[in-house]
Design a protein that fits this description.
Structural class: alpha/beta
Largest sheet: 3 strands, parallel
Shape: extended
Number of helices: 5
CATH superfamily of the domain at 32-120: Periplasmic binding protein-like II
Number of strands: 5
Strand content: 5-15%
CATH topology of the domain at 32-120: D-Maltodextrin-Binding Protein, domain 2
Radius of gyration: 25 Å
Order of helices and strands: HHEEEHEHEH
Helix content: 25-40%
CATH class of the domain at 32-120: Alpha Beta
Length: about 150
């Protein structure tokens, strides 16, 4: 009978301990950038000035592309509206300085994530949205079997 009581008590104690830990947990703090975005009601997003497929504005000023869609997804998440985005076209030389100065909330444009940039810029890279690389195509009939034979 004692062993049955112990078998019942252990799960109850574990459940009580988890409930206690859950009640002590503090809510996550969104941070000053997210608070500013919500207060302003608009996400300021830095994009490439013109890289079709990634970010480009049409003749009416409507932005489209993969990087633009990332900005829209963040705006939809934070503001419940994917259209509440202000796009700031930035060239490669401007992009980090403008982000570091707080003129934009996020940068969604072609930028290589390197250890040096991750460690030295004081910025946080998040997920990768696009992988690229180099490849060669040639006809099978060419009998090329390695890159050194190109």
């Amino acid at each position: 009978m004692k062993s049955i009581r112990k078998l019942i008590q252990r799960p109850l104690l574990a459940t009580a301990a988890l409930a206690l830990l859950g009640s002590l947990a503090t809510p996550a703090f969104a941070g000053k950038t997210i608070d500013a975005i919500k207060a302003r009601g608009t996400l300021n997003c830095g994009v490439n000035p013109s890289l079709p497929g990634f970010s480009a504005a049409d003749s009416q000023g409507v932005w489209a592309g993969l990087d633009v869609d990332v900005c829209r997804a963040v705006a939809a998440t934070l503001l419940n509206d994917p259209l509440k985005v202000k796009y700031t076209p930035l060239n490669a030389a401007q992009r980090f300085a403008v982000l570091q100065a707080g003129e934009i909330d996020m940068l969604s444009r072609n930028t290589t994530w390197t250890l040096n940039r991750d460690a030295s810029l004081g910025l946080h890279f998040t997920g990768v949205t696009y992988y690229d690389g180099h490849g060669f195509m040639f006809p099978k009939k060419s009998k090329i079997t390695s890159a050194t034979k190109l």
